[in-house]
Amino acid sequence: MSTDETTNLSVSDVGERKAEDEDVVVQYVVLRRDLIDKWPLGSVVTQGCHASVAAIWQHKDDSSTLRYCYT
């Protein structure tokens, strides 16, 4: 898919493309265990969540991100 096609992809197109695409998109959030000694666990998890949302937002117009968020 070209950049122009990705930019013009609408939310309604996401479901139609699902049957064509066999790849499964997964997002892993990796947290550093050594930070738990220095920070409260909730703060470490919160930072991981912020990083996760930032990655999704940064690629919000990508067709894979649209499928991940809307299916």
From TrEMBL:
Spell out the coiled coil positions from the record. Answer: none
- Please list the residue ranges that the record marks as compositionally biased, kind Polar residues: 1-11
Q: Does the keyword Cell membrane apply?
A: no
Q: Where is this region: Disordered?
A: 1-20
Its EC top class is hydrolase
UniProt keyword annotations, A-Z: Hydrolase
> Which EC number(s) are documented for this chain?
3.1.1.29
Q: Which SUPFAM superfamilies match?
A: Peptidyl-tRNA hydrolase II (SSF102462)
Give any GO molecular function from the UniProt entry. Answer: peptidyl-tRNA hydrolase activity
Q: Does the keyword Hydrolase feature in the UniProt annotation?
A: yes
* Protein name in UniProt: peptidyl-tRNA hydrolase
Note the superkingdom of the native organism. Eukaryota
Q: Which InterPro entries match?
A: Pep_tRNA_hydro_II_dom_sf, PTH2, PTRHD1
User: What does the record give as the reaction this protein catalyses?
Assistant: an N-acyl-L-alpha-aminoacyl-tRNA + H2O = an N-acyl-L-amino acid + a tRNA + H(+)
Stored Pfam families? PTH2 (PF01981)
